UniProtKB/TrEMBL annotation:
It comes from the Bacteria. Keywords: Cell outer membrane, Membrane, Signal. Residues 30-221 form the Outer membrane lipoprotein BamD-like domain. This is Outer membrane protein assembly factor BamD. Transmembrane segments: none annotated. It holds the Pfam family YfiO. The keyword ATP-binding does not apply. Coiled coil: none annotated.
Length: 264
């Protein structure tokens, strides 16, 4: 019995492949569309894509075009070809604004771009683009069933930008470019007020101000020591029991000692 079932499976697969190969060369677009639909429904998305590519130019404006372009978009999405999926879903939304699939297509189009966003350490141009797309979806369909997923994706993308901005600021501190570090940390804290990296950012901002101050020329030292003192106070105000307290207190003692030289 098992041998018979296995044989039947092989026969079905062979016929399916044979039908697909014929469809690729077939000029009958209706027959090609039927096979493409079967490939799509069977989860053979790459094969479906090849047929949809052939059908797309001739099906625009036809009654079944909406179904075709929806399946075409989904096939790219299912095969993780997110750039092409995003493009096709956007085209679907533009071409079929009254479709019952329009909200799903609009969400998946925006979500596809979020899949292209790289790790935080790389350039974040695609991350910003994805955020713009998702925000446009949220603004357009504020009551959509896809809003929770869209908001979750936005949160993850913002997390990448947040981590990137923090690491850039910390990088300036690491290479002793303390002026740039101070500016970068100020911008980071302003842009991400609720960041989990705030304590770290406040400390490294203080460290940058401290290093800049104690290594200054005499004419600029007093002003920079006072900037460092403010940065220390901001760190302690944020968390009086900060994990950096011992180091920060030792640095502040040096700041206070050096400041006394300017009051005599």
């Amino acid at each position: 019995m098992k041998k018979i079932v296995s044989l039947l499976v092989v026969v079905v697969l062979f016929c399916s492949c044979s039908d697909y190969q014929k469809a690729l060369k077939n000029e009958d677009v209706a027959a090609k569309f039927e096979i493409a639909t079967k490939m799509y429904e069977a989860g053979k998305y790459n094969k479906a894509i090849r047929l949809f590519e052939q059908l797309a130019p001739t099906y625009r404006g036809k009654p079944q075009a909406e179904k075709l372009f929806y399946m075409y978009s989904q096939s790219y999405y299912k095969t993780e070809q997110y750039y092409l999926a995003g493009y096709q879903f956007e085209s679907f939304v533009s071409g079929y604004p009254r479709s019952e699939k329009v909200q799903e297509a609009a969400f998946l189009g925006a979500y596809s771009y979020s899949k292209l966003a790289p790790v935080y350490s790389l350039d974040q141009v695609d991350t910003v683009k994805a955020l713009d797309k998702l925000q446009a979806f949220i603004d357009m369909y504020p009551n959509s069933e896809y809003i929770p997923q869209a908001n979750e994706a936005v949160q993850k993308l913002n997390g990448k930008l947040e981590k990137k901005a923090y690491e850039v600021a910390k990088g300036y501190n690491t290479i002793s470019d303390y002026k740039s570090a101070l500016i970068a940390f100020d911008n980071f804290i302003a842009d991400f007020p609720g960041t989990p990296f705030k304590e770290d950012a406040l400390f490294y901002k203080y460290d940058s101000a401290y290093q800049l101050a104690i290594n200054s020329v005499q004419s600029k030292m007093e002003e920079r020591l006072n900037v460092a003192k403010v940065a220390y106070n901001n760190l302690i105000k944020f968390n009086s029991a900060t994990k950096y307290k011992k180091q920060a207190d030792e640095m502040n003692a040096r700041v206070e000692t050096d400041l006394q030289k300017f009051t005599k």
